[in-house]
């Protein structure tokens, strides 16, 4: 299939079926250098074609970034939930905000965590996919995204698919140069986190300390989407009590007054839902605010109940469509790359265009160098990780295999002759 252009939904539906047929036969088109292979947008007008289960995420490890953005394997940056004061000012201490500059979407912290898990010997079998939660949320919510496109850098090494967000230098600059209005609106979200959290459990309500976006508490989980085993890492805002298994996501949103606001909020709930669902965060506390940043009301949502809450509403979405799409998307990328003759160290680019679909291309040498950005990397994987991975597989330079986990849509002839996957 060639590069997709804007199509009407009916045509997209037809194309989707064609692509699925390719997948079932285990023979997606083989991309030549710079050829573009595309996967069409799924239809949201019909129910999901099948039900794809999502395994309950199991925590593997947690880590913290300190004020100097140094990573340590501890819960030093964990925060505890406290009720915020009524009417809290979300613009409070704005001038003291320590703002971490925008970065490329590197996987380094997550790869350090995976390396640490291996070192501790608490590992698990083959990993199908490794990515940050933010990337997985973008992928899964794509069927309902009608505004913002995205691009990913992709590598497949020893059977594992690595996905990082591709943020060009121009886009990075754009993100760093927010308008004053965008800046303060972004700050409101962080200030809400500070009003709602403390560094100790059972602390009194109040300001939790000036915002420093370098500091983060992150969790890494393993899960399974259909047949695809995934390791996901992401920031967790806080926990209730002293047990880490009661994680809470904090979000802000504009006050709701009227049906239109309500419908807009229900649409936003799709992202709130997947962001938390993917890491196994069971509760989302939303602070509703005025345009000027005053906290008005609070509402707590049980993550797992959200899909049922929006069902049948004007802006309804169906999480099953997202999960089916997610499995198709991940399997399609991996199989296309592997069966397309992936050379070790190759970088691919996935481009998502709302209302159209996704395209996959192999990067040329210049583009690959742009991804490496003069850093000590092979593609976007850090050199230290690359070496560790080679030592672990014992077969340097080998191309990926198709994991048995994705056997439902795999080509049996391709899987038997290739080396075993990257294990932790
Ligand atoms: P809100 O989500 O309450 O608006 P997160 O909720 O994902 O933990 O992120 C915390 C806050 O970071 C957000 O609060 C928002 O202020 C800011 N933020 C996160 N992602 C952003 C994005 N893509 N653009 C602008 N601000 C963002
Ligand atoms: Mg949050």
TrEMBL record:
Transmembrane segments: none annotated. GO terms for molecular function: metal ion binding; mRNA 5'-diphosphatase activity; nuclease activity; nucleotide binding; RNA binding. Residues 55-386 form the RAI1-like domain. Its cofactor is a divalent metal cation. It comes from the Eukaryota. InterPro entries: RAI1, RAI1-like_fam. Residues 391-424 are annotated as: Disordered. Residues 396-424 have a biased composition (Polar residues). One of its GO terms (biological process) is NAD-cap decapping. It is an enzyme of class 3 (hydrolase). Keywords: Hydrolase, Metal-binding, Nuclease, Nucleotide-binding, Nucleus, RNA-binding. It is found in: Nucleus. PANTHER family: DECAPPING AND EXORIBONUCLEASE PROTEIN, DOM-3 RELATED. Belongs to the DXO/Dom3Z family. This is Decapping nuclease.
């Amino acid at each position: 299939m060639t590069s997709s252009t804007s199509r009407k939904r009916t045509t997209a539906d037809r194309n989707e079926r064609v692509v699925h047929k390719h997948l079932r036969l285990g023979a997606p088109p083989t991309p030549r250098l710079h050829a573009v292979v595309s996967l069409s947008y799924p239809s949201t007008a019909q129910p999901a074609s099948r039900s794809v289960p999502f395994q309950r995420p199991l925590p593997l490890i947690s880590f913290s970034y300190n004020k100097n953005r140094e990573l340590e394997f501890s819960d030093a940056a964990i925060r505890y939930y406290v009720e915020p004061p009524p009417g809290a000012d979300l613009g409070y201490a704005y001038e003291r905000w320590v703002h971490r500059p925008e970065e490329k979407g590197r996987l380094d912290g997550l790869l350090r965590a995976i390396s640490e898990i291996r070192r501790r010997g608490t590992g698990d079998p083959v990993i199908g996919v490794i990515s940050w939660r933010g990337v997985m949320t973008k992928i899964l919510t794509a069927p309902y995204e009608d505004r913002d496109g995205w691009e990913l850098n992709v590598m497949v090494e020893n059977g594992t698919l690595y996905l990082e967000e591709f943020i060009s230098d121009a886009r990075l600059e754009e993100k760093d140069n927010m308008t004053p209005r965008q800046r303060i609106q972004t700050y409101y979200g962080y200030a809400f986190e500070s009003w709602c959290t403390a560094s100790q459990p059972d602390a009194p309500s109040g300001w939790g300390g000036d915002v420093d976006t370098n500091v983060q508490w992150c969790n890494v989980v393993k899960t399974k989407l259909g047949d695809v085993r995934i390791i996901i890492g992401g920031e967790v805002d806080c926990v209730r009590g002293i047990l880490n298994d009661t994680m809470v996501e904090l979000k802000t949103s504009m006050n709701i007054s009227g049906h239109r606001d309500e419908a807009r909020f229900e649409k936003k709930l799709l992202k709130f839902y997947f962001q938390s669902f993917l890491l196994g965060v069971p509760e989302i506390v939303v602070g509703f605010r005025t345009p000027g940043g005053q906290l008005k009301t609070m509402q707590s949502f049980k993550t797992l109940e959200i899909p049922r809450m929006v069902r049948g509403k004007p802006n309804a979405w169906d999480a099953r469509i997202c999960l089916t799409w997610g499995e198709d998307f991940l399997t399609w990328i991996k199989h296309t790359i592997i069966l397309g003759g992936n050379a070790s160290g190759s970088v691919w680019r996935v481009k998502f265009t709302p209302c159209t679909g996704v395209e996959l291309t192999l990067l040329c040498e210049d583009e690959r160098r742009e991804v490496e950005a003069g850093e000590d990397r092979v593609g976007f994987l850090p050199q230290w990780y690359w070496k560790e991975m080679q030592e672990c597989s014992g077969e340097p330079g080998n191309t990926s295999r198709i994991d048995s986990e994705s056997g439902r849509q795999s080509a049996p002839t391709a899987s038997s002759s290739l080396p075993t996957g990257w294990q932790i």
